[in-house]
Amino acid sequence: MADTAFPRVVVLKGGWSAERAVSLVSGAAVAKALAEAGYRVAEVDVVHDLPALLAALTPAPDVVFNALHGRGGEDGVVQGVLEMLGIPYTHSGVAASAVAMSKVLTKRALAAAGIRSPDFRVVPAAEAAAAHVLEPPYVVKPVAEGSSVGVRVVGPMDNAPPLDPAGWAFGAEVLVEAYIPGRELTVGVMGDRALTVTEIHHSHGFFDYDAKYVQGHATHLLPAPVPPAVFRAAMDQALQAHRLLGCAGISRSDFRYDDSKPGLEGLFFLELNTQPGFTPISLVPEQAEHVGISFRDLCIWLVETAQCHG
């Protein structure tokens, strides 16, 4: 039986974002681990229905494990509800969640601290569809989505931007970002500790949704075989980003590393995820396992450090 001040846990999963399917897998894995550890666990499949959520949280649990991903669950919305109810919850609070969900706000906040990201512009979707906003190659991204949802790479030989405004379902504006060639790196942060650096090899043009969540589409190399100075800088920047944005629990920062450039010139911060996946092939649980923290212990730690942030 778990020795904890929070014996009754509600795991929120699902949600209404484009990452719903991933969240259902994450939530189920977390609930299983916590139940095996002795917690009394209930799973709630969250839909876009506030009265239903309030009913599911009545009577109030001792703690909520927020396994939601994307809009509504990772952007401060659900966090605000839990703050109003006074229920401790895992991961980051309202402000950090809202800022980190916006790639643009994150870039601007971290640039002030000297953390470089690729050059970018934010433009209306119609403008991105009409002509090249940046010199190819570049990347078109939603301003506030996760798991590479809606991301498209425009190659140097592409004649027109691959964006149809009629089919763009991710907001009126798009983020157009310079493409950085090279290697994909990611760093998980747990509390006040950067875990390790993983390099991701995948068979796709970039680390897209399938490469992240479909078994066999990506290979994780950890620790990443990069120069020690690059390894340390990625670890330091991930921890610094976690602190600067006011994150809690765990986060994951993603980088591109152009190894054709000397020293740290090729290292670029991309984005920070305040609620990384907890699927069987997710990166942060794998990094935790690498440094001796089991999936179950990671879930327990998140429950035991849950809090209200208001």
Write the layout of secondary structure elements.
Blueprint (H helix, E strand, L loop, with lengths): L7 E7 L5 H17 L3 E7 L3 H7 L6 E4 L10 H9 L8 H8 L1 H9 L8 E5 H6 L7 E5 L9 E3 L18 E6 L4 E8 L2 E10 L6 H5 L4 E4 L6 H17 L5 E8 L9 E7 L9 H8 L4 H10 L6
Parallel strand pairs: 1-2, 1-3
Antiparallel strand pairs: 4-7, 5-6, 5-7, 8-9, 8-11, 9-10, 11-12
Helix pairs in contact: 1-10
Tell me, what's the shape? globular
- The strands making up the biggest β-sheet line up spatially as 10-9-8-11-12
User: What kind of assembly state do the chains in view correspond to?
Assistant: single chain
Mean pLDDT: 90
What is the strand content?
A: 15-25%
The CATH H-level superfamily of the largest domain is ATP-grasp fold, B domain
Flag low-confidence runs. Answer: 206-214
Determine the fraction of residues in helical runs and give it as a percent range. Answer: 25-40%
Which second-level CATH architecture of the largest domain applies? 2-Layer Sandwich
Number of alpha- plus pi-helical segments:
10
Classification by helices and strands:
alpha+beta
Question: What is the CATH topology descriptor of the largest domain?
Answer: D-amino Acid Aminotransferase, Chain A, domain 1
Order of helices and strands: EHEHEHHHEHEEEEEHEHEEHH
- Count of distinct strands: 12
Q: Return the domain count.
A: 3
Please give the CATH class of the largest domain. Answer: Alpha Beta
Terminal residue distance: 31 Å
Question: What composes the largest sheet?
Answer: 5 strands, antiparallel
Radius of gyration: 19 Å
